[in-house]
From TrEMBL:
Protein name: Class I SAM-dependent methyltransferase
Lineage top rank: taxon: Bacteria
UniProt key word DNA damage: no
SUPFAM superfamilies: S-adenosyl-L-methionine-dependent methyltransferases
GO biological process, one term: methylation
GO MF term list: methyltransferase activity
Keywords of this entry: Methyltransferase, Transferase
Cited CDD domains: AdoMet_MTases
Coiled coil: none
EC number: 2.1.-.-
Signal peptide: none
UniProt cross-references to Pfam families, sorted A to Z: Methyltransf_25
Length: 208
């Protein structure tokens, strides 16, 4: 651990929950599909599956996956985001804590899928990224999937420059025993090519 605050907290001060929720409500009201991540994940699963939404924010994705028949646990370090999730879906399990210490937060491992969407990995505390990837990999059952979405340039990040490369991320995944299965440029499944500004990656844990 580095002792540094995560980049999300530096950007928002941990007070972004209500505004974040309103932003997606406005998008939905204007006709935008706000369930792309959930749809993507649901196509990889057979219900009911156990899903860990790591960096769940206000619970938008986990709530939708629960509506589709999956058992979802959400974890986030931002109490303002979790307050919205708990208000909107009080029956679901929401855990407050640092993903670098996921194993101390109590969720039963052996998830079928672990999701880290919404630039979770780039917005971690500097230096904790490899530890977080190890924690997420350890939460998977054999054959389980780690699904991540992250911006790779300033146009797709709330940062002036990307804090990590896709090669670094793949290296951390390999060190954690994961294998890259698929990579896309969007949650809609558009093909990924070198130089794309966004990557949706599907890594898997070995079956044995």
């Amino acid at each position: 651990m580095t002792g540094e605050r995560d980049r999300w907290a530096e950007l928002t001060g941990g007070q972004a929950g209500e505004e974040y929720s309103r932003r997606f409500a406005r998008l939905a009201e204007s006709g935008h599909d706000v369930h792309g991540e959930a749809t993507f994940c649901a196509e990889l699963l057979e219900a009911p599956a156990r899903v860990l939404d790591a960096g769940c924010g206000t619970g938008r994705i986990a709530i939708r996956l629960a509506e589709l028949g999956h058992e979802c646990v959400g974890v986030d370090v931002d109490p303002s985001m979790l307050a919205v999730a708990r208000r909107d879906a009080p029956a679901q399990e929401w855990l407050l804590g640092d993903l670098a210490h996921l194993d101390t937060l109590g969720p039963k491992p052996d998830f079928d899928l672990v999701l880290a969407a919404g630039n979770v990995i780039p917005l971690l505390a500097p230096g904790t990224e490899p530890a977080v990837v190890r924690q997420l990999a350890a939460a998977l059952r054999p054959g389980g999937l780690l699904v991540t979405g992250m911006g790779l340039d300033a146009a797709h990040l709330p940062l002036s420059e990307p804090p990590l490369t896709l090669r670094e991320f793949d290296h951390w995944c390999a060190e954690a025993g994961l294998t890259l299965r698929q990579r896309y440029a969007t949650w809609s499944g558009d093909p990924y090519e070198d130089g794309c500004g966004y990557a949706v990656s599907v890594h898997s844990r070995p079956t044995t």
